[in-house]
Design brief:
Blueprint lengths: L2 E3 L8 H5 L5 E2 L14 E2 L9 H5 L5 E3 L9 H8 L32 E5 L3 H10 L6 E6 L6 H5 L6 H4 L1 H9 L4 E5 L9 H7 L2 E4 L5 E2 L12 E3 H8 L16 E5 L3 H11 L2 H4 L6 H8 L5 E5 L11 H10 L2 E3 L1 H13 L3 H11 L2 E2 L8 E5 L2 E7 L6 E6 L5 E5 L2 E4 L3 E2 L17 E2 L2 E3 L6 E7 L2 H4 L7 H18 L12 H9 L6 H14 L12 H8 L7 H10 L1
Parallel strand pairs: 5-6, 5-8, 6-7, 8-23, 10-19, 11-12, 11-19, 12-15, 13-14, 13-15
Antiparallel strand pairs: 1-4, 2-3, 9-20, 16-17, 17-18, 21-22, 22-23
Helix pairs in contact: 4-17, 9-10, 13-15, 14-15, 19-20
Bound molecules: NADP nicotinamide-adenine-dinucleotide phosphate.
Keywords: FAD, Flavoprotein, Iron, Iron-sulfur, Metal-binding, NADP, Oxidoreductase
Cofactor: FAD
Organism: Mycolicibacterium chubuense (strain NBB4) (Mycobacterium chubuense)
């Protein structure tokens, strides 16, 4: 009864370190880790102890006998990662090497104090790593009144397993030494230099808050948007609650076929009754209930073997939805299969080759993968009426009628006030998370990055764990080497300063009140019914009873 890793694998590697026999790979220290689509359990070496199940923050692991029917392909997928062997080999009984926690050499003055900007996965994993050391203080600044970045506003609402990682983040936020400063925008409410006056270092984990734009005629017409905007819309992000997503069209076209495109296509074709049991935003659920969409076409400029989506997501999509290919694309899949040698790509192609035919009548909203389509222009004068493609590598033109064109060609980082920016890669130039001055190539003292703003918008939630760990190790090394200036202000001065700038700052108690109010609004049927305006969030946060005076005094003393 070996254990099996399934679709929601977040790749944070916690299972690897929990496994007593080192049967989960690639581990974070192995070369394939950075590019792996998920982690895999060796069914021969697994001793069924279940330690990985407890360690996994997203409930992605189960014994093979307890899988849902849709998860059964993952048994073969896990096994396929390991070479075929004759007979049962003994487990290695060797623990995966854990990167030692960074040892902070404490000074007599103030303890190491770090401001983290952003509160998504990279920020929370960085806080976790810093707080492995006693006495370290971490203050997390977030523009929204709610924390957790893409774990809250990026993961699709039908992927509640993946969202479970927020339970881990709640635990990190409850650790001694951790403080939230939510509803505070760094760059406008407080500046980078001001944060440095109160901290030894500022670590930016702000992600890639916008997206790459497709530069073709007609983009920008009503009826065009980006998939990432739609993701933020259906997830109740306050900045996108008012987005017009007109679903009064039978066909939607998504350009690009990464996992974001799959998420959006799935949500647009899913039964709204199923979604009504998730934390999807109310406005999105309402729009989906009156949707006329019958088909979402996911159009890629290259062929099937170059598909950007991952195999676990493809398996998840095809096991629950109606996904088809037209005859020409079936041919392309078979042609690619006849030459492809990479086992992972072959697996993807095999799943694609088993898809239904697009000529079949549409009986329920469905998804169609389409290949070799390079977008040329969006058709229409006042609003999108269709999209014209060049059949890649030919002079042929193809056209699809649609009232909604969504581009899904990747996220993009934006410059951070006070820090250098690499325009072409859309990241902050850095070496292992140390921000570099482009003029001299030397590190900028006290400035660090982690997550997508450090390495670009790729990978899964847990990929940010090893990314943040690397940054924190370098930060601590710089502190130990005396390279970080002592902050000019310490203790409760920060609280007073931030409140002076943003009186509506939300702390951990305020977030707990918002969290409880959203959960209560879910009525036990949904995990939560999200607030999608800042005003509602602030109102819910205001319901927190003020802590008794002795607790406030004690909190002041602890700082
Ligand atoms: P992505 O995986 O980088 O896919 C981008 C897509 O856009 C590719 O198909 C790419 O095609 C296409 N593209 C780029 N420029 C184009 C152009 N000018 N014209 C037409 N097509 C163009 O990006 P993503 O989907 O935004 O995902 C970002 C990251 O988040 C990925 O690592 C993804 O795995 C991760 N993610 C994971 C999950 C999950 O695990 N459930 C969910 C969402 C996101 P080419 O390949 O031809 O360039």
């Amino acid at each position: 009864m070996p254990h099996v890793i399934t679709q929601s694998c977040c790749s944070d590697g916690s299972c690897v370190y929990a496994c007593p026999v080192n049967c989960i790979h690639p581990s974070p220290d192995e070369p394939g880790f950075a590019t792996a689509e998920m982690l895999y359990i060796d069914p021969v070496a697994c001793v069924d102890c279940g330690a990985c199940v407890s360690a996994c923050p997203v409930g992605a692991i189960a014994p093979d006998t307890r899988l849902e029917p849709a998860q059964l392909p993952f048994i073969e997928l896990n096994a396929a990662f390991y070479p075929k062997r004759e007979g049962k080999l003994p487990p290695t009984s060797k623990l995966a090497p854990v990167l030692e926690a960074p040892v902070v050499r404490r000074r007599s003055k103030a303890p190491l104090t770090v401001a983290i900007v952003g509160s998504g996965p990279a920020a929370m994993y960085a806080a976790d790593e810093l707080l492995t050391q006693k006495g370290v203080r971490v203050n997390v600044f977030e523009k929204l009144p709610t924390p957790y970045g893409l774990a809250r506003a990026g993961v699709a609402p039908d992927h509640q397993h993946t969202k479970r990682v927020t339970t881990l983040f709640d635990k990190i936020a409850a650790r001694r030494g951790f403080s939230f400063y939510l509803n505070v925008e760094v760059g406008s409410d407080v500046t980078h230099d001001e944060l440095l006056e109160h901290h030894h270092a500022v670590l930016y984990a702000v992600g890639s808050p916008t997206d790459r734009r497709l530069d073709v005629d007609g983009i920008g017409l009503p009826g065009t948007a980006t998939a990432t905007e739609v993701v933020a819309w259906y997830n109740g992000h306050p900045d996108f609650a008012g987005l017009t997503v007109d679903l009064n069209t039978e066909q939607v076209v998504i350009i690009g076929n990464g996992n974001v495109a799959l998420d959006v296509a799935r949500i647009l074709t899913m039964d709204p009754d199923v979604l009504s049991r998730t934390d999807i935003a109310d406005h999105a659920l309402q729009a989906l209930r009156s949707s006329r969409v019958r088909e979402v076409v996911i159009a890629a400029r290259r062929g099937p073997a170059a598909s950007a989506f991952t195999l676990p997501e493809l398996i998840g999509l095809t096991s629950t939805g109606d996904v088809v290919l037209d005859a020409a694309d079936h041919e392309r899949v078979l042609a690619d299969l006849s030459t492809e040698t990479d086992p992972l790509t072959r697996n993807k192609l095999e799943v694609l080759s088993g898809l239904g035919d697009a000529s079949a009548p549409i009986t329920r909203p469905r998804i169609r993968f389409a290949y070799q389509l390079t977008p040329r222009r969006v058709l229409g004068t006042d609003s999108a009426q269709g999209i014209q493609f060049e059949v890649t590598g030919t002079d042929d033109v193809a056209q699809i009628s649609t009232g909604l064109v969504l581009t899904s060609i990747g996220y993009r980082g934006v410059p951070i006030r006070g820090l250098p920016f690499d325009e072409s890669a859309a990241v902050v130039p850095n070496d292992g998370g140390r921000v570099l001055d482009p003029a001299t190539g030397a590190p900028l003292p006290g400035s660090y990055v982690a997550g997508w703003i450090k390495r670009g918008p790729t990978g899964f939630i847990g990929t940010n764990k090893s990314c943040a760990t690397e940054t924190v190790h370098n930060l601590v090394a710089d502190y130990n080497d005396g390279l970080l200036s002592e902050p000019a202000h310490t203790g409760s001065a920060l609280d007073r300063f931030v409140r002076g700038r943003q009186p509506a700052v939300i702390d951990a108690a305020g977030w707990k009140a918002i969290d409880a109010a959203e959960t209560a609004r879910g009525g036990g049927v949904r995990p939560r019914a999200k607030f999608s305006s800042v005003a509602e969030m602030l109102e819910a946060a205001a319901d927190v009873p003020a802590p008794p005076v002795h607790r406030r005094l004690l909190a002041g003393l602890r700082r």
